[in-house]
Design a protein that fits this description.
By secondary structure, the protein is an alpha+beta fold. It is 27% helix and 22% strand.
Length: 527
């Protein structure tokens, strides 16, 4: 891995840290001329979000959009510490770890004027836990009951101690929806979503844009300068760059590394970069025969059936070369799902080296006739297809015939959940607690366990790690779980992403943290 001067080791806290409201300041924000109120910011998204329903949404683009109109009980700050958002303070946890009491902000309204209170929080959390098809079910599986203590306090009774709960409530499981809108719209909430946020939903044109206007009910409205935010879906990175340079958009996410280098000297564009907690990996279908929501089976492909071939496939991949050729050496090459900032990382990760000769030996040892077919699915746009081409070339040298299947992002996720792939080149946006980078992705029944891995040892280690409160004990258990996944090779981790956000010079106050989500609450357009 190339040494990068801006990589720092951040310690992720085990408890929530009380501090100022997120968005008030930032260690990574755009600068420019004198700020002016008003104007609508147009932001280019690299992929279209799925449904804008916090209970059902399961894509990173949806997480990006939620920040503008749907606040959570907790959020993260520039050091990836958890901070109160709709909660008023850190939760009070009972000595046995089975009761979590959360005080709430007072005087807050949803964007339809409905009062925000404990009943509203209970309504949303219960919906997350019980709605059919909920993507939050496993995230809140530890919660047995949500009780209204008083109008400004909720209490969560847990089935078992669950240390990552705070981190879950700083993600979509902590998004709170207007009970009035839920009653009116029911399962169609995502068509006209209403939450607490600096902006309120106005319209959505599928495949084109999502429009928000400034909320008049927002509790912190004095800090909101923009009249609105429009998210425009532009999947082609070349078009995103062109729109940014022309001024048709004032912000563009996921600028490619090569474009970021070229734009560093632009008089009209500012480039912000962050070493994110996201990672990229190849998920190999080993047991997802009828979908992630059903019991696992046995894959029918040579790669899915043979750990020996999966090892050969990994041995054929030169991670450093991929990073250099596709990403201008900007990413952090790695073989772990835990970000470099995490204090839970093993100190001596044992990565599979690039060894094509050994890979050829294992292919021969397997007895499978070559070339061995591999259907590699990859979301269209960004650098994914180019990465897939490099992988295909490397794997070909040792006996694999990798056929690249590009699909639209949301469609690729649907195909992955249905088990309609051999291998899937897909990223994970990352979570600040290690449980969020492991549990739902490699344990039995996980909604994002595309590989269909079902291993009692992995399941047990992940469960014990989540229940433990001692940091050293958790780190050891997660290390064991990662080593076991490495042995099974259902997922081949490649690198942690460096992401680049391009903004117009006249855009100020954009907050861009290592979670890779641009926040526009305090953004403004200069005159």
């Amino acid at each position: 891995m190339r040494a990068r001067r801006w990589i720092v080791a951040l310690a992720l806290p085990l408890v929530l840290a009380a501090c100022t409201t997120p968005g008030a300041s930032s260690g990574a924000s755009a600068s420019g001329g004198a700020a002016a109120s008003g104007g609508t910011l147009v932001m280019a998204l690299s992929a279209e979000p799925d449904v804008l329903d916090p209970t059902l949404a399961n894509t990173f683009p949806a997480r990006v959009v939620f920040t503008s109109f749907c606040e959570k009980l907790y959020d993260t700050n520039e050091t990836l510490s958890l901070v109160p958002q709709l909660a008023a303070d850190v939760p009070q946890v009972s000595p046995d770890g089975l009761t979590v009491t959360i005080p709430l902000r007072q005087g807050v309204k949803f964007n339809d004027g409905t009062p925000f209170n404990a009943e509203a929080v209970k309504t949303s959390l219960d919906r997350h836990r019980t709605l059919k098809g909920s993507a939050r079910t496993k995230e809140l599986a530890s919660v047995q009951d949500v009780t209204v203590v008083d109008p400004n306090t909720v209490r969560l009774t847990l089935k078992y101690p669950f240390t990552p709960l705070g981190a879950q409530l700083a993600d979509r499981a902590g998004l709170i929806m207007s009970p009035t809108a839920l009653q009116q719209l029911g399962d169609n909430f995502g068509t006209a979503p209403v939450c607490v946020g600096p902006f309120k939903f106005q319209s959505r044109t599928s495949g084109s844009e999502i429009v928000f206007t400034k909320s008049t009910d927002y509790y912190d409205a004095d800090k909101v300068k923009l009249d609105g935010v429009t998210y425009r879906i532009i999947t082609d990175p070349n078009v995103r760059r062109a729109n940014l340079e022309s001024g048709d958009v004032q912000a563009a996410e996921r600028i490619t590394a090569t474009d970021a280098i070229a734009l560093k000297n632009s008089p009209d564009v500012t480039i912000q970069d962050v070493d994110t907690i996201a990672y990229q990996a190849v998920s190999i279908n080993v047991g997802n025969t009828t979908g992630t929501a059903t019991p696992t089976g046995q894959a029918s492909t040579p790669l899915g059936q043979s750990a020996l071939l999966r090892e050969a496939f990994e041995l054929s991949l030169d991670r450093n070369a991929i990073n250099k050729v596709v990403f201008a050496d900007s990413n952090a090459v790695d073989c772990l799902p835990l970000p470099l900032q995490s204090q839970f990382r093993p100190s001596d990760p044992q990565c599979t080296p690039y060894d094509p000769e050994r890979a050829r030996q294992l292919v021969a040892q397997s007895g499978v006739p070559t070339p061995i077919p591999v259907n590699l699915m990859v979301p269209a746009g960004n650098e994914g297809p180019r990465t897939a081409e490099v992988i295909a070339g490397m794997a070909k040298d040792v006996g694999f015939d990798v056929r690249i299947n590009q699909q639209e992002f949301v469609s690729s996720l649907a195909a992955a959940r249905a088990g309609q792939f051999d291998a899937f080149l897909i990223g994970w946006s990352g979570r600040i607690d290690p449980d969020g980078n492991i549990n739902d992705l490699v344990t039995t029944g996980g909604s994002n366990n595309f590989s269909g891995l079902s291993d009692p040892q992995v399941d047990d280690l992940a469960k014990r790690a989540a229940a433990a409160t001692d940091q050293a004990e958790r780190a050891d258990l997660y290390g064991q779980a990662i080593r076991r996944v490495h042995e099974l090779r259902s997922v081949i981790y490649l690198y942690h992403d460096a992401w680049f956000l391009g903004t117009s010079k006249n855009l100020q106050g954009v907050v861009y943290y290592p979670d890779g989500i641009p926040r526009f609450k305090t953004a403004s357009l200069a005159g």
